[in-house]
Amino acid sequence: MPQQIPETQADYDKTRIIERPDGFYWLDRDTGEEYGPFRHLWEAVQDMEYTPEPGVEVDEDLREVEEELGISDWIDPETGEPAEETHTHLEDH
After folding, report:
1. Residue 2 lies in a domain
2. In a domain, 93, yes or no
3. String of DSSP letters for 8-42
4. Alpha-carbon gap, residue 74 to 91, rounded angstroms
5. Whole-model pTM?
6. Which residue range forms the structural domain that includes residue 33?
7. pLDDT single digits (tens) 1-54
């Protein structure tokens, strides 16, 4: 079943979707920034309509997010997985 493409709402006059040979882009007319390429038109529309949750910083660094979640930054060289919280590890120097 083909994906139904949503209609662009009237309050999106500040954006435009552009089709190029390598895919679809959307353009923010206020800032002049271009986002894409997207393989499908509906992907470009979804990205254009996306609004992050309040209080979530888009520019947060991966390390900062991992620290907030309590994810260990030490990777076990044998398994390639993050270290378990219950085990201690010796760092190689």
Report:
1. no
2. no
3. PPGGGTTEEEEEETTEEEEEETTT--EEEEESSHH
4. 9
5. 0.46
6. 10-52
7. 677 766 766 655 778 889 999 999 999 888 889 998 999 998 998 888 877 666
